[in-house]
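Escalation from tier 1.

The customer reports that the assembly of two entities below gives different structure tokens on two consecutive runs. Tier 1 could not reproduce it. I'm attaching the input and our single run for tier 2 to review.
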Amino acid sequence: MSEHVVPRSVYFAVFGALMVLTATTTAVSFVDLGPWNTVVALAIAFFKATLVVLFFMHVKYSPRLTQITVGGGLLWLAILILITLSDFMTRGWLPVLK
Amino acid sequence: MADATAPAVTGGHAGHGGPRELQHHFDTMEQQREASSFGMWLFLVTEILFFGGLFTAYAVYRHQYPIAFAEASRHLDITLGTFNTAVLIVSSLTMALAVWSAAVGRRKGIVLFLILTMALGAVFLGVKAVEYSHKFHDHLVPGPSFQFPGPHARPAEIFYSLYFTMTGLHAAHMVIGIGLLTVLLLQARKGRYTPEYHTPVEVSGLYWHFVDIVWIFLFPLLYLIGRHLH
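Tier 1 run:
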């Protein structure tokens, strides 16, 4: 079988990184960074999710078709969130017409 | 055509040869495995957008009521939330090791790691039940008995509506995941999975990791957004 068997050491390394990042995001949330609290929390969450997708879910070692499918899913998620927010976040920008 | 509804033929379709698990519409085990994993990913993409709708609703309301959301978030139990995040990450590791055990042909390893993964999933749900009961006790469940001190009661109720919808849906996925793993466990004990054929373990693993990823985003967005205040 040509299936790629990922060595266990990779799983343990990813696990360690996920635990450290969880501790980091919890600790940072107690520090007042203004609007950057949300940015840091989301950046850490995206990094953790990327580690899980690439290594635990084997996407790094998967066929191109799978990788494109995952990317396509994320693209549509981005479209959903960005276009919706581009409406709600800009509603106060225009003067109210009477 | 009548063949499609006939009971499974032992040893594959006559004349095709190949391993027992190879369905006749695939040429090789590798092609079959990649098709299954691709199919699971297509399902997971629909799940991304399913949860994505809720995350979008969260973003819209949090943008509208930032202070109320931060205040409401402080009433969640950060200790239990962090503990549960760790539990899920460990369960993802044990799930990955179950798939690994299947890929290298360690049957006892598959059974052991599946049991560990299910146990950790059960711990997560138990902690969630404790948290939910606290919220009922503290009148933080949206509805007629919802009470929230200060001027932000209404938007705080929206936060808790999202909290219960998102974590409830996530918990439902955990229950389904534990159900899937129960089937895998019974099959693994019979020695059904080998290095050549363990696709069910692999695709159920994808599902389990996906549910873990949803929590990776729920945890900071629900539990951590008001900690730096006061």
